[in-house]
Design goal:
Blueprint lengths: L6 H21 L4 H22 L3 H22 L5 H13 L6 H33 L1 H14 L1 H21 L5 H24 L1 E4 L9 E2 L3 E3 L2 E3 L8 H7 L6 E4 L5 H17 L5
Antiparallel strand pairs: 1-5, 2-5, 3-4
Helix pairs in contact: 1-2, 1-10, 2-3, 2-4, 3-4, 5-6, 5-10, 6-8, 7-8
Length: 280
């Protein structure tokens, strides 16, 4: 069950995540002030509750949650799973999610949330990519065939390898490993699908004046004697200063807005926690 003192945190988090979703769809970024303000509000609220109740745990577990999610967010960010805004939103939710005064119960909540986030993210990402590819079906179909032709050797290698795995599974009669065969078989096709989607649907021309810090450069741009190269962290203030000297449009790679997965995962977690389903 969820304690009454957590209602404020839940409402604030829901409002902030909804704003993040709106920002993500409109600008393909989540503002730092939004994520940082959620951290400050959550920890300040926890501090006041702890002072008035004379129980330090409510505040300390908020700090522990923030610390754990800070580490996870950096792992996801540098592992190129999350963009900067998504990673910071995850950190902020670390200060919100410790709903219990028991450490192991909070740890259970963290595990469920990360699991739900990955599941919701996978389903949402697949649906979003299918809709996007359908909306751009001509460009996507052309690019898919191009990527398939370009990666024929990769497809042949994985198909042969998967057949060998399948024969081995039949020989040793360990049919549980049939999933491994399917993963190996599908990998090159999923890779080609992702590359075709990126090239045909997620690369956009932008005017220099419309570029912002964090935008992903598609390929290097030469401005005079200087070269701005693409990197995972996105464009910096220094990069923008150089690019502003260029009068041509710049190719930018957009990502799929991931914040809806946060919203769905958070709502599902609250429903599960409220009904005490899957929780001790």
């Amino acid at each position: 069950m969820i304690n009454v003192v957590n209602y404020f945190l839940i409402v604030i988090a829901l409002i902030w995540i909804i704003i993040a979703v709106i920002q993500d769809f409109r600008k393909r970024e989540v503002a730092n002030w939004l994520n940082f303000s959620l951290i400050v509000i959550s920890l300040t609220y926890r501090a006041f509750i702890s002072i008035f109740s004379l129980d330090y745990r409510f505040f300390v577990y908020g700090l522990i949650g923030f610390a754990i999610f800070f580490i996870l967010a950096n792992i996801f960010y540098y592992g190129r799973v999350f963009a900067g805004g998504d990673a910071k939103l995850l950190m902020a939710l670390g200060a919100v999610l410790p709903f219990s005064l028991l450490f192991y119960e909070n740890l259970e909540i963290f595990i469920y949330f990360i699991f739900l986030l990955m599941i919701c993210g996978s389903i949402y990402g697949l649906i979003y990519s299918i809709v996007l590819s359908y909306k751009n079906k001509q460009a996507f179909s052309k690019e898919f065939l191009k990527q398939f032709s370009k990666n024929k050797k990769l497809v042949h290698i994985f198909v042969i390898f998967s057949i060998l795995i399948f024969i081995l599974v039949l020989f040793i009669k360990q049919y549980l490993f049939i999933w491994f065969f399917l993963v190996i078989l599908l990998f090159p096709f999923l890779y080609i699908y992702a590359k075709a989607l990126e090239e045909s649907c997620l690369v956009k021309l932008k005017k220099v004046k419309d570029l912002t810090v964090g935008d992903w450069l598609y390929k290097e741009v030469k401005v005079g004697k200087k070269v701005v190269r693409p990197h995972w962290e996105g464009l910096t203030e220094k990069d923008l200063a150089v690019l502003k000297k260029s009068k041509k449009k710049i190719l930018i790679k957009e990502g799929i807005p991931f914040t809806p997965a946060f919203l769905v995962a958070f709502i599902v977690l609250i429903l599960l926690r409220s009904s005490n389903w899957c929780f001790r």
